[in-house]
Structures are given as C-alpha cells and as structure tokens.
Amino acid sequence: KAGVTQTPRYLIKTRGQQVTLSCSPISGHRSVSWYQQTPGQGLQFLFEYFSETQRNKGNFPGRFSGRQFSNSRSEMNVSTLELGDSALYLCASSLVSGEETQYFGPGTRLLVL
Amino acid sequence: SQQGEEDPQALSIQEGENATMNCSYKTSINNLQWYRQNSGRGLVHLILIRSNEREKHSGRLRVTLDTSKKSSSLLITASRAADTASYFCATAAFSGAGSYQLTFGKGTKLSVIP
Questions:
Q1: Are A11 and A19 in contact (CB under 8 A)?
Q2: Which residues, 6 or more positions from A39, have their beta carbon under 8 angstroms from its beta carbon?
Q3: Residue of B nearest to A49 (CA)
Q4: Nearest to B88 among A33, A43, A105 (CB)
Q5: DSSP class per residue in B30-68
Q6: Do B95 and A56 touch (CB under 8 A)?
Q7: What's residue A79's pLDDT?
Q8: Can you give the residue range of the structural domain that contains B103?
Q9: Which residue, B83, B77, B57, B67, is CA-closest to B23?
C-alpha cells in the first residue's frame, strides 16, 4: 500500500497570506490527524477528522482550519499567516481512531517571511 | 500542552551499547506509543503498549509501562549508527470530545557513534 502523502513538501509564504496543505491517507484509513512541529513547542495536535467530520481539535486559533473529503483526503488551511506559523506540518492517518498507530506523511515545511 | 516528557533530552552512545529513554506523563491513558523521527522527516511508529500491559518487545526494542508511576521506558539494545534519530513518546487519552487524542512529548535526540 502507498504511504501517506503530503503536498506540497515545501512552501514559502509571506505574512498575511493564506496557505492550503493537502494530505492523502493510506488507502482504507478513515481517520486523519494534523500536527504542527516547531523546535520550541515540539509536536502539537491540530485536529482530527473522521468521515468528513472534525472529531477533535487542539488548542490553536481559528486561523487554522481543515476539512476532509469523502475519499478521506484532507486539507488544512491557515489564514492570515504569522511568522510563528513557520513549522513542519505533519499529517497522519489511522484506520478508525486517533488512539491507534498513526502513519505519518513526510510533512510540509512552511516558511513564513 | 505536552503530556509526555522524555528524559534525557539528548543521549550519545557508542555503537553496540544499549540506549534507554524514559517518558513520564500526567493523566490516565489508553495506550502509550513510541515513534522515531529522522532529521526533519515524518515520524515512524515503533511500538504501542496498552495501559493493561507492563512490557512489550519488538526486535531490539523493549518498552515498559508503569501506570502507577505514570512512566514508560524504551530500551534499544545493541544500537547501530542507523538508530540515530529523535524518539518521541505519545500518550493516547480520551479527549472528552468523543474520541481519543495522541499527545507527544518533546523527544530524546539519540546519537549513535560508529
């Protein structure tokens, strides 16, 4: 089976812009979670989607949003980018639940200038 | 907020030696997982231990879980240069929002010197 894929892999944006990141889970996986990783804060949970519904949300401002499509593919959007949004954004999928083994994609590295 | 806290933050050993990393957490958990991350890449799942288990093995990996002390340890035996990576523990706990959430610690950076 193909692994989790994320596009794009690298992205450079300027403050105030918005960005959309995409994640394709492993075939058959219905749960998709997003994480932000920075040197200072480590890995922080953003949100989890299951069957096109947001099931869980981390402690991030409303500028961070996401959605899941009927084929389980997911996108996350960050509006009004800030310098502090520079990070590695990781997507992970699992069969059903966020407590199961997570299969991670390679990540999207976002740099906000 | 971080649930798991790894100790030590960094560890440097010679190839062939054993490496032990510890993880402490604060709340009740459903399971605890260990992941490895090679520099700036995605995480790779290593092992999952459930709250009713005390010890688990997988190849050169041995994980223990002490729920009374809210702590876990990961032992890598006969380390290799290829084991050089960051290791994270992640705790799965009920989020109260109808599902479970995985919370990661800040990781232990392991360097294995050939």
A1: yes
A2: none
A3: B99
A4: A43
A5: SEEEEEEE-TTS-EEEEEEEETT--EEEETTEEEEEETT
A6: yes
A7: 96
A8: 5-113
A9: B67
Number of domains in chain B: 1
Question: Could you read off the pLDDT of A38-89 as tens digits, one per residue?
Answer: 998 999 999 999 999 998 899 999 999 999 999 999 999 999 999 999 999 9
pLDDT at B5: 82
Comparing alpha-carbon positions, the chain A residue that sits nearest to B6 is: A42
pLDDT tens digits, A6-19? 999 999 999 999 99
> Is the peptide bond preceding residue A8 cis, with omega within 30 degrees of 0?
yes
Closest to A71 (Cα-Cα) out of A15, A102, A32, A99: A32
Distances (CA, A) of B81 to A10, A97, B14, B45, B64: 28, 34, 9, 19, 24
CATH of the domain at B47: 2.60.40.10
Q: Residues of A with CB below 8 A from B102's CB?
A: 33, 45, 98-99, 102
Rounded CA-CA distance A53/A99 in Å is 17
User: Looking up tokens 């889970």, which residue turns up?
Assistant: A25
C-alpha to C-alpha distance for B33 and B44, rounded to whole angstroms: 11
Chain B residues whose CB is inside 8 A of the A35 CB are: 104
Chain B residues whose beta carbon lies within 8 Å of the beta carbon of residue A43 = 43, 88, 104, 107
d(CA A99, CA A86): 27
**Strands annotated E in chain A:** 5-7, 10-13, 19-24, 31-38, 42-50, 53-57, 64-68, 74-78, 87-94, 103-104, 108-112
